[in-house]
Amino acid sequence: MASSTPMEDIMREKITTALTPSNLIIRNDSHLHAHHSAMRGVTSRETHFHVTITSPAFQSKMQPARHRLVYGLLKEEMSREGGIHALQLKTRTPEEEEREKQREGGSS
């Protein structure tokens, strides 16, 4: 049986293989953008994503370098017709995630 989320599956597999994340959240926001003129005629239901990645691979890298790393992993999916149209990223190291949780009072 074919997956109902093939793009998300590919993203998850590529990010997991390359970055070994301790936390990976992929949220499909495509339904929020389906009415945009750029999306007219696009049949894919997987075009807009918000991705949170916690990985030690981001250690000593600034945000732009982290984002370039992820964009590089998903280059093919982003250039494909009907592929990823928008990708919002939140990238952090395990230490940054821990500090964030402490600031939030551990509510995550």
UniProtKB/TrEMBL annotation:
Bias (Basic and acidic residues) ranges: 99-108
Any one Gene Ontology BP term: [4Fe-4S] cluster assembly
GO annotation, cellular component aspect: mitochondrial matrix
Domain of life from the UniProt record: Eukaryota
One Pfam family here: BolA
Region: Disordered, residue numbers: 81-108
InterPro entries hit by this protein: BolA (IPR002634), BolA-like_sf (IPR036065)
Family as reported in the entry's similarity comment: Belongs to the BolA/IbaG family.
Protein name: Bola-like protein
